[in-house]
Write a structure and sequence with these properties.
Neuraminidase, 6% helix
Length: 383
């Protein structure tokens, strides 16, 4: 079993305001890390080259999920509009898949989206507990088939993982509220779930209240801010990884559940102050503000919030900083065995996919409208 450890020996970059930092993004300027020991590290440069949003005629709802095909076709899963919008690699709208409903090819919401083997599109609707698969090789995007995993002792599925190996079954991530755990299971033909999990770990303690007022229902999340949670994903090498955001510690498993390697990196403790709490709640509803007013939040930030293993086997971990308007991304080369580059991005840039030399993120424009942003990724060698 391989264990890779990366040390923490840099100073955070100087904080700047979010508005000033967003300006170079909109102008397409390059962003690169500038740690104090830059002479000793490789650098990652992100150069914005595409923005899809209201300025280009695309209107999105909330909670976007982004997927990308091998040819650069962009798929945007829109949770609130219960649909998937397809864009060309140049950002032109091509088609829309789905509408609100529970019939074939319809969604109550888009909870998870990925482009898998053969450029097929996999869309998971956790409310309907259904995975819909659309053929993508010929750009027709017809519904190919659906899978409805059986539930019960494993809990409810909330994510799907698609191995590159066409012979391997889909993997579903189940959350079991009774035990406070998540587990990853293979789902076989017909929706039967393999009883032996590929991996099992802790689940975030999250509480959701449903309140009715004015003739409508309101969802209020009352879990503490900056709580710890699980990070689960799958690599191009068909390894499933799990981490708990308390510390940067990812464990990789084979599709049969064999532990293959561990990636560890140091992290700094960032205190949670009233400033961070206020920043986290500035876009929240009044009901959520009231619900969290008396909550006891953690004293420090999680060690990281996102982990992505890209198609070139680089491990991207998103870190909090002492400036709530900025996040850092640590990019460790060669599957965690190489050196680490560090770059800084506005905290409203939600990186989701790194593929074919580009990084794709959900974000917002200057007016707060949802957008999808693409960056060209350049790795600069150590000086």
């Amino acid at each position: 079993m391989r264990t890779h450890r990366i040390s923490d020996d840099f100073k955070p970059p100087v904080a700047m305001s979010a508005r000033l930092l967003l300006l170079p993004l909109l102008l397409g300027a390059a962003l690169a890390a500038t740690p104090c020991n830059a002479q000793q590290r490789p650098q990652i440069r992100l150069e914005q080259d595409l923005v899809i949003g209201e300025a280009t005629g695309a209107t999105f709802g909330e909670l976007l999920r982004v997927g990308v095909s091998s040819r650069g076709t962009i798929y945007v899963g829109d949770w609130s509009n219960a649909s998937v919008i397809i864009f060309s690699a140049r950002g032109a709208a091509l088609d829309t898949i789905g509408r609100r409903g529970r019939g074939p090819g319809e969604f109550t919401a888009v909870h998870d989206l990925t482009v898998g083997r053969g450029d097929s599109l996999y869309v998971f609707d956790a409310n309907a507990m259904r995975l819909s698969v659309f053929g993508g090789a010929d750009d027709t995007h017809r519904l190919a088939y659906s899978v409805m995993p059986e539930t019960g002792e494993f809990g409810r599925p909330f994510r799907v993982l698609i191995p590159n190996d066409a012979r391997a079954p889909h993997l579903f991530v189940f959350r079991n509220a009774a035990t406070g755990t998540i587990s990853v299971h293979s789902v076989l033909a017909g929706g039967s779930v393999e009883s032996r999990p590929v991996l099992q770990g802790a689940a975030a303690q999250s509480r959701v209240d449903y309140r009715t007022s004015g003739g409508g229902a309101e969802i209020v999340r009352t879990s503490p801010l900056f709580g710890r949670g699980p990070v689960v994903g799958i690599t191009k090498r068909n390894e499933v990884y799990y981490g708990w955001t308390e510390k940067v510690d990812l464990t990789f498993f084979s599709l049969t559940g064999k532990q293959e390697s561990i990636f560890r990196a140091e992290s700094r403790e960032i205190p949670v102050t009233s400033r961070e709490v206020g920043h986290a709640l500035r876009e929240a509803s009044e009901a959520r503000r009231r619900a969290l007013a008396q909550a006891e939040h953690p004293k420090t930030m999680p060690a990281f919030h996102t982990a992505i293993v890209d198609d070139e086997s680089r491990i991207w971990t998103g870190r909090y900083t002492s400036d709530p308007d900025r996040h850092e991304w640590w990019v460790t080369l060669d599957y965690g065995r190489g050196e680490t580059a560090i770059l800084s991005l506005p905290s409203n840039i939600d990186l989701q996919v790194v593929r074919n030399g580009y990084a794709y993120a959900a974000s917002v424009d200057g007016d707060g409208a949802p957008t999808v942003v693409r960056f060209r990724v350049t790795v600069l060698p150590r000086k």
